[in-house]
Each structure stands twice: as structure tokens, then as C-alpha cells.
């Protein structure tokens, strides 16, 4: 009886939206503390580039930074996602099921190269993605200095626009 009850429980799906949004908020704070006057904005193209690299790093344990399993750089991935502009990224690999936003920002804040990226007032766009496995969490943030390309279109609607029947 108990075994039947346990097997009937649906698996929980991880939703890292809160962590990802927290990374954006923390980068915004770092930029304000650095004297930046512009507001960093989430860019769906950069989020897609971050998602690709996050999944690559999570599933290819030999990876430990910016270069993908196919030899791609952050610039390659951003361009493939349709972003035209200068980009950089920060990557966190935590050997645990999860990472808190405080742990993450502390990791990046105390690395001079990552702090320089986060506090760069020229970075006006950001895309963040994170994934978890049982023994590891990967978070990637891709920063951009401005996208000169038109919005990438998905079937029937551009990014950021409501789909058919969705409230506008």
C-alpha cells in the first residue's frame, strides 16, 4: 500500500526562476554601487546563450569555465542566439544540489575578473540560466553591451510579445 502511494507522487520539477532573477537583481546592485546610471535589462537572446552553456557545463564535467564542449566561446553562443554586440560571461559551478544567491554573488564578487564584468556600466543586457543535478549546480550569466540586431522571432511572435490569445 505504501509503495503504491509513493510511486503515485509526481516528481518535482526544479524552477530556478527565483535564483536567476536574484542574480539579475544582484548584478543591478553591483552596478549601482559602481556608479552606473543605466539599468541592466534581461535579454532573451543572452538568456538562451546562457542556457546552452549551462546545460553544456552541467553535462560535461570536464568543462570548468567559458569554453564549451564544441570549443565555442561566449561570443559564439551569443551570436548563434542572435545577439549582435560585445559580450562577456560569469560561470559558477557549485558541487552541491543547490546554491544560494548570496553564495553565488560572493563567489563572483570576490573574483576580480568577474567583479569587473558585473560592475561594467557598459553591460546593459543580461541573460541568466541555472540548472541543478544531484551533485552539482551550474549558473551562467551572459552580459551584453547592447544588441544591434532586430529581435529574434519565434514562430508567430517576436520575443517579449504575447502569443495569440494571450493577454496583451
From TrEMBL:
It comes from the Bacteria. InterPro entries: CAP_sf (IPR035940). CDD domains: CAP_bacterial (cd05379). This is Cysteine-rich secretory family protein. It comes from Mycolicibacterium hassiacum (strain DSM 44199 / CIP 105218 / JCM 12690 / 3849) (Mycobacterium hassiacum).
Amino acid at each position: 500500500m505504501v509503495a503504491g502511494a509513493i510511486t503515485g507522487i509526481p516528481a518535482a520539477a526544479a524552477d530556478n526562476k527565483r535564483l536567476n532573477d536574484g542574480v539579475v537583481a544582484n548584478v543591478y546592485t553591483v552596478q549601482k554601487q559602481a556608479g552606473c546610471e543605466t539599468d541592466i535589462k534581461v535579454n532573451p537572446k543572452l538568456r538562451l546563450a546562457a542556457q546552452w552553456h549551462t546545460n553544456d557545463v552541467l553535462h560535461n564535467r570536464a568543462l570548468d569555465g567559458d569554453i564549451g564542449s564544441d570549443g565555442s566561446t561566449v561570443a559564439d553562443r551569443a551570436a548563434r542566439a542572435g545577439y549582435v554586440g560585445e559580450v562577456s560571461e560569469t560561470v559558477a559551478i557549485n558541487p552541491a544540489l543547490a546554491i544560494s544567491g548570496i553564495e553565488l554573488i560572493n563567489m563572483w564578487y570576490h573574483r576580480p575578473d568577474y567583479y569587473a564584468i558585473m560592475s561594467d556600466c557598459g553591460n546593459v543586457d543580461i541573460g541568466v540560466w541555472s540548472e541543478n543535478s544531484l551533485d552539482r549546480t551550474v549558473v551562467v550569466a551572459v552580459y551584453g553591451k547592447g544588441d544591434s540586431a532586430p529581435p529574434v522571432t519565434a514562430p508567430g511572435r517576436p520575443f517579449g510579445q504575447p502569443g495569440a490569445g494571450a493577454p496583451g
